[in-house]
Amino acid sequence: MSAATSFSVNGGTVRVTAPPLKRLADVLREDLGLTGTKIGCNAGDCGACTVLLDGRQVCACMVPLGQAAGRAVTTVEGLAEGGRLSALQAAFQRHGAAQCGICTPGMLLAASDLLARDAAPDEPAVMDALGGVLCRCTGYRKIVEAVLDVAAPQADSEPAAGSAVGARLAKLDGMAMLTGATRFGADAIPADALWLRVVRSPHAAARFAVGDLAPLYDANPGLVRVLSAADLPCNGFGVYPDLKDQPVLADGVVRFRGEAVLALVGEKTALEAIADEAVPVAYEPIAAVVGLDAAMAEGAPLVQADKPGNLLIDGGLRKGDAEAALGSCAARAEGVFETAFVEHAYIEPEAGWARRLGKRLELHVSTQSPYMDRDETANILGLAPEQVRVLPSACGGGFGGKLDLSVQPLIALAAWLLERPVACVYQRPESMASSTKRHPARIRARFGCDAGGILQAVTMNADFDTGAYASWGPTVAVRVPVHATGPYHVPHVSARGRAFFSNAPPAGAFRGFGVPQSAIAHEALMDDLAAQLGLDRLAIRLRNALRPGQATASGQVLQASVGLAPCLEALAPPWSAALADAAAFNKTGGAWRRGVGIGCMWYGIGNTGLPNPSTMALALGRDGALTFYNGAVDIGQGSSTVLSQICADALGLPLGHFQLVVGDTDLTADAGKTSASRQTFVSGKAAQLAGEDLRGQILRLANAGPDAEIALDGTALRVTDGAARHVIELDSLPAAADGTVLRGEGSFDPPTTPLDDNGQGNPYATYGFAAQLAVADVDLALGVTKVRKIVAAHDVGRAINPIQVEGQIHGGIAQGLGLALMEEYIPGQTENLHDYLIPTVGDVPEIEVIVVEDAEPLGPFGAKGVGEPGLIPTAPAILGAIRHATGVRIARVPALPHRLRAAILAQAGPEDDTP
Amino acid sequence: MAGYLRPNSVSEALEALRARRWTVLAGGTDFYPERVGKPLDDDVLDITALDALRGIEARSDHWRIPALTTWSDLLAADLPPLFDGLKRAAKELGGVQIQNVATLSGNLCNASPAADGVPCLLSLGASVELSAVDRVVSLPVARFVLGNRATALGPDQLLTAIVVPKPKARRAYGHFLKLGARRYMVISIAMVAAVAEVADDGTIRAARVAVGACSAMAKRLPDLEAALKDRRFAPGLGEAAVAAHLGSLAPIDDVRGSATYRTDAALTLVRRALDELGARP
Ligand SMILES: Cc1cc2nc3c(=O)[nH]c(=O)nc-3n(C[C@@H](O)[C@@H](O)[C@H](O)COP(=O)(O)OP(=O)(O)OC[C@H]3O[C@@H](n4cnc5c(N)ncnc54)[C@H](O)[C@@H]3O)c2cc1C
Ligand code: FES
Ligand code: FES
């Protein structure tokens, strides 16, 4: 039933004919083209759809069109005043409050509702107002800062040539995020597109048969095609060339709840009207293998028939003789630590559309890996890679979860077969059920040191539940042994990483590739050793911190940029202050106890012992346009801005001249995946080389020396070399077909060596280091933990853009807090953002970031990565604080209130105040 | 095809309900989340244009909270300290964008075991006004909510108002404590609402304490209420509560918490709620 409804939007009256129950969010996006309003859950849980209704914030996904009648709606598109950003938008831009930008419209509207009532709110009021909007990227702190700072004057800061690196620059792509102009995966779907809906298994393990589809077609004239496994030329994908074990559509057997079984293609409204029960799939459930114990059990059913023992990979590392060395240690600690499946919970569900253009296929998707998407999709469809063009949309959060294929092969197949554009946007529950997860781990580790607290030996046995398909399981199992010791020097190491299949969603890549899990183990054991020897927890870490000239567990001798010691030294004053404060607080008694914890980490930047090149290009056109061809997709972490800063300074022109082409597989070279914290280091270096290459060409043309200054003035390139001045008229130079007259290129592949059979080698060219302290209060009677403060000291080599660096650290901390305290994905039970909890604005504490710049000689201007390091030390630091407060060593995360309370009850009583 | 009706008058709405079956829709915050990825094919009676069902009123012996009262309306309303618990529940329910549209009546009609409104209303001794074309009946909340997602609402009835009796004593205070695993937007693991009516001599004339999320529906604790009666209204009130008072609760294990934990936490929450209540000036 459709009806005409009139209401006002951003000041103008509209009249919409649509069903009155249609969600206002859908009406705004589909009927009015206002795609600035985002949809993250359709259930009130994420707040991405927040708009103002008669001036008050509401979730547009829960307002029926009928209720909008006669009322005034304000969307993000209505915030800018006369083409200029509002003061609030400008404050967001200034503070770097938008990372991926998908939550930004909702945040802006929630904040404007508050500011209309209270022009100078305090922090608690801001938090209350934003409490219903989730952000997975920023850790909220910069958003809160921006709202509190709304009244500050706008500063226009365009850095001069050569001074972009190190500047606190606002994101180049930030403006569009603030006005709602940024197009995410679901935002630019052509009106004539068919839609695709995936039918998914409700069972963790089952055989199935598809029944007669004729009645379904008959009952739904808008249903155009039902795709099944038989339609796929090659029905397997996976991130490893030799491990294409995941079917695009299951073929008679499903191996996890949420696995794709069929794809319905048709008119959007027709697909929406089809009830799940109407699709004839007959399942015959079989015994599911759930959890590591079941997967590893003798004679366990096989999840994949050709994988004996359900084993995906068994990787290891040996240096020295750990057993013997442990035997002679003065102090030894051991423990078993368990983690859960963790969901990426990017606020933008998987989305995209595809179209066929003759013999080519175009994919417009939200992704972290355009080239891999291209090659995988081509492989599945039986096309040559060059026949597929991937044009990434803006990516509303990835964190590793958008490295694997989701909608890509399905929309590609449908568009190819039907020769119509085909779109697919996942609903939140299917996104959660079908996407990859962080690997649940069970880590058994032993640490031993001498009487002075100097580490002698480490053993670690890390078993991972990799779910039904391989995904990035091998990466995790190989990376973790290398990092088993933590960022410490240990002469004797034995470490093993295994991954087992189970009937659960595939565990894949998630910020840190297993290292956050192992950090929980090594940091708890460091605390144990400190306690046994009566040493300060920071002091023992400093004594053991890896230093230049020392060898890692894989035998790699670190040469430079080994900044853990300076991080710990920077942390020492706040550490002492926090311990003193906690002791004073605990003297006052009461239900709450305060604790302080510390976590350290290191993280190898880039792929583990594998090539991982990136190529960047910078072109000057005859029209004077300066275009940066950057294949690294920016998933919110800021690479578009940071790489441009690097490239601009390498070239010697101001950033203002830069035009960006990002991640289009036809126009940009392969920059590799946006993962493993590698883009600043690897692509940044390539960008630097590209800038230098172009600069070299210009200087040669002008016959100028290396210190000459370059200026671009229309089509005139002016080169000043001391007293000598040259003008290069770009429009007089010979041009390529696309108008390019000068083109610089740079490629970088970090020098690494593969690991040998004993896990020895130089798997990474550089490592990030960090130490964080956490202050947390624990309600002993209820087991509730409230993190009060985090101080984070990170060695980033060089902060190309301090705002982005802080933003990455803040966001990582928020995810680390979630890992420690609340996040646990259980198939069928926590499949939405109502039951699966991620931190809200009120859960992320005050964060103080200390940037340590121990330059990496290989990196661009000394920089290395920071994307993942932010998260890794947080959970250990929080767990350390809980332990300091309660005496309980948490062996299983998340430390949900009921688990922590049980642990508190199980142990004798709180330990005393020894630091 | 789904029908949709958004009448302007209560009588029109009640006529519609008599004529056929409708799904009543108010703030939609329970309605829409239940239909993610599912067809919106209900016949919906949208009651949000019934302006007669807005505006809290204080009457001689009761307050009338009409059905369209949102949680934000409650927060903004000028109400005595008796309602402090309900207001606190309002402030902690969902986020502001939920509070702005979600109604207290919808929370009650949805009858989730974790509905924060239910223990509050039990502690207030509230009743519901159920209207049909041919009758208006009043039912205490404890007899309206029958279990997990079950109420006494008839197909032809609309909940038109919640009625809270005025206490006999001049002083009456309410309090509410919610336990969740994060700060905002969280369904309660357990929650407690408590009201004390204080006589002029400073003793408790009547107390009502209810615990939610620990049974199929929120439950009052009559033994505890009896133990509180005639006690001095003063700090330390929590010591009156003992585990046996919570014997009628039947919590379950779920992803939010274990049954054992809920039992244990409920007692802590009850004691704290009473301590904080008794500490009121
Ligand atoms: C993100 C989010 C967070 C939430 N957090 C909390 C929380 O912390 N605590 C909590 O308790 N709840 C929470 N809720 C649920 C809460 O919003 C609802 O219970 C709300 O109060 C219901 O009111 P509504 O007006 O939106 O109801 P609707 O969704 O419109 O209706 C709910 C049900 O009641 C019926 N109904 C509504 N009004 C009437 C009436 N007058 N007569 C007869 N039947 C009626 C409807 O038919 C429907 O079955 C949350 C919801 C969301 C989406
Ligand atoms: S889309 Fe509306 S709250 Fe998530
Ligand atoms: S910036 Fe908030 S979700 Fe990405």
At a glance:
Chain A is α+β, with helices and mostly antiparallel strands. Helices cover 28% and strands 24% of the residues of chain A. Among the domains of chain B are: 48 residues, Uridine Diphospho-n-acetylenolpyruvylglucosamine Reductase, domain 2; 108 residues, Enolase-like, domain 1 (2-Layer Sandwich), CATH 3.30.390.50.
Oligomeric grouping of the chains: heterodimer
- What's the β-strand tally of chain A? 33
**What fraction of the residues of chain A are assigned to beta strands by DSSP?**
15-25%
- CATH topology (level 3) name of the domain at 171-278 in chain B: Enolase-like, domain 1
Termini of chain B, distance in Å?
A: 58 Å
Number of helices of chain B: 9
Poorly predicted ranges of chain A: 909-915
Name of the CATH architecture of the domain at 171-278 in chain B: 2-Layer Sandwich
Strand order of the largest sheet of chain B: 4-5-10-6-7
The largest contact between protein chains, plus residue counts on each side, is: A-B, 69 and 52 residues
Measured distance between first and last alpha carbons of chain A: 68 Å
Average pLDDT for all residues of chain A: 96
Number of helices of chain A: 23
Annotated CATH architecture of the largest domain in chain A: 2-Layer Sandwich
Low-confidence runs of at least 5 consecutive residues of chain B: none
Helix-strand makeup class of chain B = alpha+beta
Notes on the structure:
- The complex is a heterodimer of chains A (915) and B (281).
- By secondary structure, chain A is of the alpha+beta class.
- Chain A has 23 helices and 33 strands.
- In chain A, the strands form eight sheets. In chain A, strands 8-10-6-18-15-16-17 form a seven-stranded mixed β-sheet. A five-stranded mixed β-sheet of chain A has the order 2-1-5-3-4, sandwiched between helices. A five-stranded mixed β-sheet of chain A has the order 12-22-21-20-13.
- The C terminus of chain A is likely disordered.
- Chain B is an alpha+beta fold and 281 residues long.
- Helix content of chain B is 26%, strand content 25%.
- Chain B is built from nine helices and 14 strands.
- Chains A and B meet through strand 4, helix 5, helix 14 and helix 23 of A and helix 4 and helix 9 of B.
- The site of one FE2/S2 (inorganic) cluster has 13 residues of chain A, from loops.
- The site of one FE2/S2 (inorganic) cluster (FES) has 12 residues of chain A, from loops.
